[in-house]
Structures are given as C-alpha cells and as structure tokens.
Amino acid sequence: MSVVEITWEQAKRMVSERLRQWIESMPPAERALKILWNQMLMSPNEMLVHVERLDEIGRQIIAAELTKIGEEVGVYYIIKG
Amino acid sequence: MPNALVFRPDYEVLTHYTSRYLEAYVVRSAAQLGFSVTDLYAEEACSDRFFQEIDRQDLVVFGTHGLENRLYAQNGTVLFSSCSGDESLSGKICFALACRSASKLGYSAVDKGCTCYFGWLQDFVVIIDESYTDPLEDPYAGSFLRPVVNGINAMLSSYIYGRKLSEVAEITYNTVFDSFNQQIAYWRTVESSTASQMLTYLYWDRDNFIPIFREEVYIPTPVYIPPSLRGILAIGVVATPLVIKAIS
Q1: Range of the domain at A48
Q2: What is the pTM of this model?
C-alpha cells in the first residue's frame, strides 16, 4: 500500500466531486435517502455543504471517503494541515 | 440465571432505528438464550431506572447517542459520563451502539473495573431511507445495523456458553467485522453511486469498532443450562441409570 500526502483543499475537491456525482445520478426511488451522523440527519446536499465548508462534520465525511477510496485502490492517504 | 440489561431510548430518528433493531434482534434472542432481560425502553430509558437496575446485571447493551466521554438517555439527558457514573459498569460486559464512546468513556469504565467495553471510536454513521415506516424494512439502514446486532448476539451466546473474556471479545469483534464485510461484499456488486456511499460508511463503521478489556480479567463461567438443552439433559439423567442397570 503506497502513502499519498494531500492537502485538505485537494481532499475537499475530490470528495465534493464524488458527492455531486451521487446527487446528480440519484434515481427518484433514492430521493428519500438521508445520512444519520451522530445527532444530525443530513441529506446528500447538506453533506456537500459541510464538505465545502470544511467544518468538523465535513472533515469527517472527507476522512471517511478517503478511507474507502484508499482501501479500494491500495493507497493510504495522509491529509496535511 | 445471568442478567442482561438493554438500554434503548426512542425519541428521534437514530434512537428509533436502534431501539427497533435491538427490540427485534437482541431483546428476544437474549431471552431465548436464557438471560433474564431488563429492557429499558423509551421513557424507561432514563438514569433513575438505569441506576436502579445496573447492580445486578452481567451484561449491558446500549443503543443510544454518545460522545467521547458520555452516553445519553431518553430525550437527550446525560445518562453518565467518564467523570461520574461509569463506575456502575464495574464487573460487567458492555456493548455500546453509540457514537465515539469507545474513545474515552470505554477506557475510563475499564479502568474502573468494567470487564469489557465494545464501542465506536468515531461517530457511528447510518444511511437511511425515510420512505420506510418500519426501520426493519429499510435495506440501507439494515446493512449498518445487522452487523451490530449480529455482534451483540455473538457476545450474548459466547458469554452464556462460558467462554473466556478474551474469547468473548474475539468472537464479538470478529462477528461484527465479518458481518460488515458481508455487507461490503454485497454493495460492491451494486453499480451505483449510492452503493459507493454505502461502502464509504460501512468501512467507517467497521474500522471504528473496538473491544476494550484488560487481558488479566476472566469472566466466571455462568452455571446455567440453556432451555434448549434442559430437556435433553433431563432425559439423560433419567435414562442413564436405566441403561447402566440394563447392561449390568
């Protein structure tokens, strides 16, 4: 597994692009999907807002997404800063 | 008979989901395994009732909100924290389906004598489909919550069959990990961006789950015969002298 260092801005772009693809490709049958994150119930659009803001929840969403991408492509991402 | 307490507030979406899964897949199976179950649900899931019941329990299952240093009761009131109240878990095995509590509260509880604490280091994340009225029918939420109830049931059954603490911890951890992997394997076969998001949080929930326990602590083997074996053993007790007599 290789190690790749990226910045929060790079990680934000990568993850927000994936979230946009999810929102745009979502069929009508999946429009009621929400994510329960601790005591928050978020729509995919609200997740995107958190990622764009890079707030605490946004950073966790980014960390989770990078963990998944890393597992699938064999890369261990380290976010600098 | 060993005692198990299931603590399941129900006052908003997440606790509604977790309480429903615990009711359907843990409360009933614990009773079937032979535990005397104290089920603190909704308004009963409050600190007064919890502290009335906790002393006589062997195992405790929480399905509630949490933070690094606390667990919450019905309507978001604090149940206990790592500063006060977690000593009540001394001598008990605990499974906390709650956010972040394994990062600090679990270690504090084990330091104060809790036998083993299973929990999550980070937020426990669930994708739900709000169009389902019954959480048990929601296939998205089920992918996250079934691995958890599988793990709780593995903990209950390995305890009641008298496994060592290290074995209970290993069996419970492996059941949760393997159950999440089964869900991951399924969602990998689904080609959609929603499946990709499911995978993100299945990995997240799987990798943030940990058991905390002290190696030197061993669980006393419960002197208990499960109901399913009682009939067989009763027949054996009656029939064995007759067989011996017939042979002699």
Answers
A1: 2-80
A2: 0.88
Asked whether B37 and B30 are in contact (CB, 8 A), the reply is yes
Instruction: Tell which residue, B193, B186, B180, has the closest CA to residue B145.
Output: B180
Chain B residue with Cα closest to A62? B200
Q: Give dist(CA B164, CA B185) in Å, integer.
A: 31
The architecture of the domain spanning B3-247 is 3-Layer(aba) Sandwich (3.40)
Check CB contact of B125 with chain A, cutoff 8 Å: yes
List the single best residue of A25, A68, A75 to mutate versus B (max B Cβ within 10 A).
Answer: A68
The pLDDT tens digits for B93-135 are 999 999 999 999 999 999 999 999 999 999 999 999 999 999 9
Per-residue pLDDT tens digits for B187-197: 999 998 899 99
- The domain tally of chain A equals 1
Chain B residues with CB inside 8 Å of A35's CB?
Answer: 125-128, 197, 201
For B200-228, what is each residue's pLDDT tens digit?
Answer: 999 999 999 999 987 655 454 444 444 45
Task: For the beta carbon of residue B101, count every other beta carbon within 10 angstroms.
Answer: 33
Q: Do B204 and A68 touch (CB under 8 A)?
A: yes
The model's pLDDT over A22-45, given as tens digits with 9 standing for 90+, comes to 999 999 889 899 999 878 899 999
Distances (CA, A) of B95 to B42, B108, B136, B168, B210: 18, 15, 21, 12, 10
Domain residue ranges in chain B: 3-247
The DSSP 8-state label assigned to residue A4 in this structure reads E
SS percent in chain A: helix, strand, coil, step 5:
60, 25, 15
